[in-house]
Amino acid sequence: xxxxxxxxxxxxxxxxxxxxxxxxxxxxxxxxxxxxxxxxxxxxxxxxxxxxxxxxxxxxxxxxxxxxxxxxxxxxxxxxxxxxxxxxxxxxxxxxxxxxxxxxxxxxxxxxxxxxxxxxxxxxxxxxxxxxxxxxxxxxxxxxxxxxxxxxxxxxxxxxxxxxxxxxxxxxxxxxxxxxx
Length: 181
Fold this sequence. Notes:
The protein is of the alpha+beta class and 181 residues long. It contains four helices and nine strands, in the order H-E-E-E-E-H-E-H-E-E-H-E-E.
């Protein structure tokens, strides 16, 4: 009996270390790569509504993914106004809010890793990016299906929301919808 409890405690300790290492890898794998540049040639086809001079486009890197394949997204924030916008950079789920709807039309829950990212991403503001008029910021989310449970077969609809700062007030920008199968 005592041996079984000791083995169970050791196994639980290994699992805790495994999930801690997995969370650290997820933070690296789901890091958002941001490049501030003028958009040339590769204008996204669908923009969300323009709000306070900013708009967001969201597209999947491909329209169909295999079950075991990472679901990757590209998010473009464009300043179409005449004043500088500021994009705050912090944890992924704090920079962007996602509405991921499954084939049944219901919101997809966070996975265990996604829940850890949601809690860990709140560790403060890292910095901000100034986005001049006419400029765009391109971000890539590498593994959306590691954050949200996308295990059902079928079509998913994803919308991204990004908060920007204009004249010391925050504004929420809504993206276009991305459909993923």
